[in-house]
Design goal:
With 248 residues, the protein is an alpha/beta fold. It contains 8 helices and 10 strands. The structure holds adenosine-5'-diphosphate (ADP) and magnesium ion.
Length: 248
Amino acid sequence: MDAPLLDVDGLVKEYDTGGPEPLTVLQDLDMSVREGEIVAVAGESGSGKSTLLHLLGALDRPTAGTVRFRENDLFSKSDEELAAFRNQAIGFVFQLHHLLPEFTALENVAMPALIQHRSLSEVRPRARDLLDLLGLADRADHRPGTLSGGEKQRVAIARSLMNEPALVLMDEPTGNLDARTAQPLHREIERLSQDIDQTFVLATHDPSLAQIAERVLRLELGQLHEIDPAEDIMPAEAASRGRDADKS
Ligand code: ADP
Ligand code: MG
């Protein structure tokens, strides 16, 4: 069998919060992701989803444990090597799009390649293709301030794909959008998975986003537990809180 894209073993993350005991967020966590898979990480707010995604994307270092990426031990690399790895191999989409306001949609999409000191004229065709892929061909010259919430998040998704990353990490990518705006984005993610066999790890507390995943893992007490994708991803109490929040 092929080695997994991502192989996480015994991951521990503690935060020093100034008190006598550190805060343990991830505790001996194991995880494995195959090439081409869509995996959802579900869990209540504060359960450690963002912490886990930051470690998978090498934005932060664990307290203990290993993350192997195509059999390479990530955290044996220097900070400089990790920065290059992130730029090349990982695409990030955050809840807040983090687009640069003074650049156009096309320039924002091209940014990960510009960081590699490639010229805009060289990478413009790919940035255009990606905007096209996300249904934004006619928004290429718009600045983020003139785009809707859903459009901004599409630009962020296009940007995450710019350097043909092996893995796209999405941290509650539609958490900021209403259901009507989020739905087409979910279909977009599903389509990218089918069309270009893109691997995704999505953190979400949105059941409709979890529905597009092949596997749903619930993060609880620092560890992941596989749950049936048809099952409610949140405990009843949290789900009803979520529904109330939707109404307001
Ligand atoms: P989620 O994304 O599931 O809401 P997070 O990973 O953001 O959860 O946070 C998990 C826990 O770790 C929370 O209790 C949060 O307050 C804490 N935490 C996150 N980042 C830090 C940090 N840099 N320093 C201290 N505590 C943190
Ligand atoms: Mg989070």
